[in-house]
Amino acid sequence: MEPGPASPPVERRGLLAEIEREVVVCRRCPRLVAWRELVAREKVARFLHEEYWGRPVPGFGDPDARILVLGLAPAAHGGNRTGRVFTGDASGDFLWPALHAAGLANRPVSVRAGDGLQAIDLWITAPVKCAPPDNQPLPSERDNCAPYLVRELAALDRARVVVALGGIAWASALRTFSALGASLPRPLPKFGHGAEATIGRWTLLGCYHVSQQNTFTKRLTREMLDAILQRAVALARAPGIPGG
Fold this sequence. Notes:
Helix content: 25-40%
Strand order of the largest sheet: 1-3-2-4-6-5
Distance between the termini: 18 Å
CATH topology: Uracil-DNA Glycosylase, subunit E
Radius of gyration: 17 Å
CATH class: Alpha Beta
Number of domains: 1
């Protein structure tokens, strides 16, 4: 799958804005709708006086991005509270300083949607847009949400690198590439930290998820994350790469 000419910026922004409008009102998955709204009503003590977003969380970033970071789903008291992916929880507190250090964000702190944070050459999103119970979306829920990610990546036609945070994100990226017409290699490339595969016009990079389960145990260190992001930047901006 060879890249075609990039869309005009105004067209790209329009497509992404249209997707966001559809995402934030989505009610395709009754279990997820019930859970995200229950969490937003009952809250937790430390956020008792905050207004929760309580809806699907759209992608965020630079519509002209060459790098896409892909997670799993919003956290119940993170993105489901703040309205932005990887914001308001320990995962975001680990991720955004690294993105800032890599030149992919204008500051190292993400508080909530509308706080002035800007992504630079970066789009960040998740294959599941609603917070799932126990951070475990069902396969049917992943399938219901999959068309949104396909449309996002299609609209992000300058994107050349996808950083998959975890095995579910890796598998989701492969399915998305296939849906957009790329031929997948056989056997399928396996997820691992530092794994790399070129598929169609994209390079897929694997990185352990930035969850506390990985960061507290040092399975994923800041140095490991920095190395992946540096590789993503180098690939995205390499001479001869369309948009580079």
